[in-house]
């Protein structure tokens, strides 16, 4: 084989690989809607831990057998089901996460992030890139969280999705940070209390305060009761743009600052600084972007960054960005530690400057 032939083969392989990547990305939205349909039709629940035919699943779902077979085969191609013989399927370990009855279920996360309300603004990503404006606000005439406030069912779904998204962090965080040197932790924007419950379980001497809006706290009493922490954790409703409750020596925020602009993030942090005792700390749990994209560790973080752009106006940040917003709030960033068991999150610790 000549050198030209080798070169041409290499170019052809590179082109083919590039084409496959682009096609996979373009069809990604279709894959997401396939998973959404599976959740809405309760496919994984109906198959359960058995092997069932498409006709059986269709009958239980109130669907037509042939289209159901096509859906199940698409789910098998995505690795969520396995087709054993023609038209007969079982659930894979990944597919089992679509069963709402499992404690590690991701069904609310699927519903929320395939919800048309979440996706409409993405149609205007190019406009947000051109202008820097939040596409959601333009499309709906109000900001994302105000819109959620008007839709109780969607707000509850959002809270459930955030609870499912935080479970891995709730398992890893308590063992990755020295909570034992503090007496009271306030989880700022803590939602239903899933994360704080994980911390309290691992540290019996610690008291907790769950701080969020009334909508954000709506599912919290049930979570704390179920976890057995109602007596050790108080609920405080409020707006972190106005104040943060005093009385804690540790203020925890997980995936809060990335929802907001730098100016808004500084406001939130300033309110933490105003009530922070001299030996207190602020602990921020968020991804920390490298200065240059590392494709081996990037994961979904950069897509999350664009989601912040189009839907809420926030952003993911580099270490330098976190240092800047902390400095402007009167805080000094003391350490950044990767949360290896819950990548891509990092523990960003800050003290009074």
Strand content: 15-25%
Q: Any idea what the shape is?
A: globular
Mean pLDDT: 94
End-to-end CA span: 67 Å
Number of helices: 16
Number of strands: 11
Poorly predicted runs: none
Summarize the helix and strand pattern as letters.
HHHEHHEEHHHHHHEHEHEEHEHEHEE
Q: What assembly state would you assign to the polypeptide chains in this entry?
A: single chain
Helix-strand makeup class: alpha/beta
Radius of gyration, in angstroms, nearest whole number: 23 Å
- Largest sheet, strands/sense/barrel: 8 strands, mixed
Helicity level:
40-55%
GO molecular function, one term: methyltransferase activity
Keywords: Methyltransferase, S-adenosyl-L-methionine, Transferase
Domain O-methyltransferase C-terminal: 122-331
Organism: Streptomyces fimbriatus
Q: What's a quick, concise take on this entry?
A:
By secondary structure, the chain is an alpha/beta fold. The protein has helices at residues 3-26, 28-40, 43-47, 54-61, 65-77, 107-113, 116-119, 125-131, 135-140, 144-149, 152-172, 194-202, 220-227, 262-275, 301-312, 319-328; strands spanning 52-53, 81-85, 88-91, 184-188, 207-212, 233-237, 250-254, 281-289, 317-318, 331-338, 345-352. It is globular.
């Amino acid at each position: 084989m000549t050198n030209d032939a080798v070169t041409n083969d290499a170019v052809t392989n590179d082109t083919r690989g590039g084409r496959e990547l682009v096609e996979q990305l373009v069809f990604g939205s279709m894959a997401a809607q396939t998973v959404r349909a599976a959740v809405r039709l309760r496919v994984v629940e109906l198959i359960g831990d058995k092997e069932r035919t498409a006709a059986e699943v269709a009958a239980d779902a109130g669907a037509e057998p042939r289209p159901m077979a096509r859906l199940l085969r698409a789910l098998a191609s995505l690795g969520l089901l396995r087709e054993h013989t023609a038209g007969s399927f079982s659930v894979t370990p990944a597919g089992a996460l679509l069963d709402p009855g499992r404690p590690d279920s991701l069904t609310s996360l699927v519903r929320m992030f395939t919800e048309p309300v979440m996706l409409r603004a993405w149609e205007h990503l190019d406009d947000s890139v051109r202008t820097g404006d939040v596409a959601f606000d333009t499309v709906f005439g109000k900001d994302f969280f105000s819109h959620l406030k008007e839709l109780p069912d969607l707000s509850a779904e959002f809270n459930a999705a955030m609870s499912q998204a935080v479970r891995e962090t709730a398992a890893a965080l308590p063992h990755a940070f020295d909570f034992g040197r503090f007496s009271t932790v306030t989880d700022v924007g803590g939602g239903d209390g899933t994360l704080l419950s994980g911390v309290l379980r691992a540290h019996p001497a610690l008291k907790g305060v769950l701080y969020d809006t009334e909508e954000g706290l709506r599912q919290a009493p049930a979570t704390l009761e179920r976890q057995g922490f109602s007596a050790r954790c108080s609920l405080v409703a409020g707006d972190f743009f106005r104040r943060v409750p005093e009385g804690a020596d540790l203020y925890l925020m997980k995936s809060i600052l990335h929802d907001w602009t730098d100016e808004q993030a500084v406001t939130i942090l300033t309110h933490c600084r105003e009530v922070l005792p001299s030996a207190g700390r602020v602990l921020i749990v968020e991804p920390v972007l490298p200065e240059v994209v590392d494709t081996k560790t990037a994961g979904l973080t950069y897509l999350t960054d664009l989601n912040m752009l189009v839907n809420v106006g926030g952003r993911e940040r580099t270490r330098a960005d976190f240092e800047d917003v902390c400095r402007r709030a009167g805080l000094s960033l003391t350490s950044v530690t990767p949360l290896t068991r819950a990548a891509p999150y990092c523990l960003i610790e800050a003290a009074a400057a």
